[in-house]
Amino acid sequence: MHRPTDDPPHHHPDPAVLGALLARHGWRRRGGAPGRYNRWTPPAGPGNGTSLLVPVGSAFPDSADLLTEALAALEHSAAPSAREVLIALHTPSDEIRWHREIPGTRAPAAAWADQERLRTGARAMLLAGALAARTRAGHHGARRRRQAEAALAPLLLGPAPGGSDLAVFLPLEAPAGTGRATGEGTADGGDRLAATLLRALQTARDATDYRRATGRADAFDTAVEAGVCRELTDAVVTLTGGSQGIRITVEWAPAAGPPKGFAARPEPVEFSPGDLPALREAGARYVRDEPSVPVRVTGAVVRLRRETPGGAGVVRLRVLEGADVTQVRVALGGDDYRVAGHAHLAGLPVRVSGRLESRGGFRRLAGAHSVTPVPVDEAERDGLLKSLLEAPDDFGPACGGE
Length: 402
Fold this sequence. Notes:
By secondary structure, the protein is α+β, with helices and mostly antiparallel strands. The protein has 11 helices and 13 strands.
């Protein structure tokens, strides 16, 4: 678990927020002085000898002292939940929790594999939510992936003991000078990621039930507007496979409250192995039905390959503008391939028209034509050459691969 490393703030947390977080993480309220403070004890397990005195409000003379002592006790508590409470206090966050039902006692190697599967599936699910928060599509593929991954950078990831439980904290934006988050959305006016993901999961659950009850898959078509996509169904399949079922729970930041239109304590969303055929079918349906996208792309040639001199070949472009993917694979005829090769040697980008196809994740430009070099000044050319040398090659070992 990542713990806050900054110096603690000089202001004290809202006692109501601290109490809500303690209750959420299994601490029990046991006595105290009615109307003045409550005594909280941790859940059973390590650190269960600790107790906290938390004031019911900030109006009493000793409230600040009690809060200081409670925070110090949390810092030194051996209870695992104490760390999560401190994180949520330090950074107001929505919380998402995954639980996988894993049969029996697992060998160490199997437990490690379960942890990796849980982390991989949860990360994929968060990415699907971040993609849906930007735009709705049945299949995103490589489109907008860089922006979605950047949106996940602030999240705080908890441990995954035994591969059965994982918690993620999604920090909220706080208006400058308030020290308190709002529940209205993100800084750019969009929905909170946890809200977008919860809505998509609830809709995917309903569409799956409809498919299993009626044999019809059309509910997955309308589910796209709620954020359901191939990336989400794949994530659910990853998490559910090899388990007896999964449960996803969303808890809102107490300092912000629930977003508009959501319950204060949403019901967990669950999937079982019996849902897998419907989810796999839906994912394939999304890939098949997602339309190709006509584009005119400007990009730097980073790789060329052809079987015979003078013939057709394949090039790879690092996209500079014209499409919301980072790189594309383009099959070119002999003349266009020669133009691309000369541009590559000269350090010039090229412009090419075609259609981004959903098959292959929108990494392939079909029907490519009208390849032309794009003139740039010397400074831009030097910068382009430098970026090509420094950029990591994350597209694959060769143009010929998918």
